[in-house]
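INFO batch 0412 | record 1 of 1 | parsing
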Amino acid sequence: MEIDGGVAVVTGAAAGTGRAIALRLAAEGATVVVADVDAAGGRETLERIGTRGGRARFVRTDMTRDDDVAAMIAGTGGALRVLVNNAGGGGHVPPHFPDATPAQWGATLALNLRGAMLATQLALAPMRAAGGGAVVNIASSAGLGSGQYASPEYAAAKAGLIRFSTSLAGLRERMGVRVTCVVPDWILTERAQGELARMSAAERAAAPVPLAMEEVADAVVAFARDESLAGRVCVLQGGEPARLLPPSALEA
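INFO prediction complete | emitting tokens
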């Protein structure tokens, strides 16, 4: 699919991985909608895109608010080709289930899963009207594991996002919209850099190799372009090639 000339929405694009994805899509010729609750960070992303000759606009969006998500999609003006559901978080902020209140762990589910589901649902009609499109969901390796995890609600949300993506493989034939999912391991964000700085030499040696944010952006662009891939999951681990899970990997 051609990215150049279309509109791409990137949620959580005010910093970190979302910003890297927004910069890359703008470099590919898309007009990028930078969606985030952080207005200052969103403006910085716009400035970085602009200095590189790209086109972008900022829309303040709280992915836990239905009206914000609806306004984000409506603001694309019917030219939406790419939606990247990158906004997420809460996996490192205690308290976690079962100590957290229902409102606290429910907020993590809303941000990491429900918001992406709603944005995808609302994007289908404009993408179909525009001749097709691509939704790329950004999950986490926390959603693939089978062992204990410090934030069960975050792991459950990301696992749900992965399975949500694979469940929609049939949309390519029905509506011309491809839904895929990128599952990164530890990403070298500013927070990760701080964690590495606080580690001892032995701890750093034992830590997993972090991914560059640009590696996630590369995977997003590859999924957006490749019209043969729908409902597929790409796993990214630092120091290893990107790996597509077989279509049956998550089936019972």
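INFO post-check: The longest strand covers residues 177-184.
INFO record closed
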